[in-house]
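R.M. (postdoc): so does anyone remember the format we settled on? I'll just put the structure tokens first.
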């Protein structure tokens, strides 16, 4: 029971940073570039959309790897 709980928490942690890291990097990067290039909110939105795509692919691969085990 304890190992199952830790496995679930580990999976939640991995999925959390798999989703959070791209959105933070690309979101802040897009906002920063928008300020520099005065193109607000174009690059912020592009960064968020790209991060959703990257996160979705990463989560899909992780779930597929788990389901194959």
């Amino acid at each position: 029971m304890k190992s199952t709980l830790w496995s679930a928490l580990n999976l939640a942690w991995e999925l959390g940073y798999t989703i959070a890291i791209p959105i933070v990097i690309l979101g802040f990067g897009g906002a920063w570039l928008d300020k520099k290039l005065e193109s607000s909110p174009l690059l912020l939105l592009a960064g968020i959309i790209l991060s959703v795509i990257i996160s979705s692919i990463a989560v899909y691969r992780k779930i597929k790897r788990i389901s194959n085990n």
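R.M.: ...and that's the designed sequence above, right after the tokens. Also worth knowing: The chain has a mean pLDDT of 94. The CA atoms of residues 14 and 62 lie 9 Å apart.
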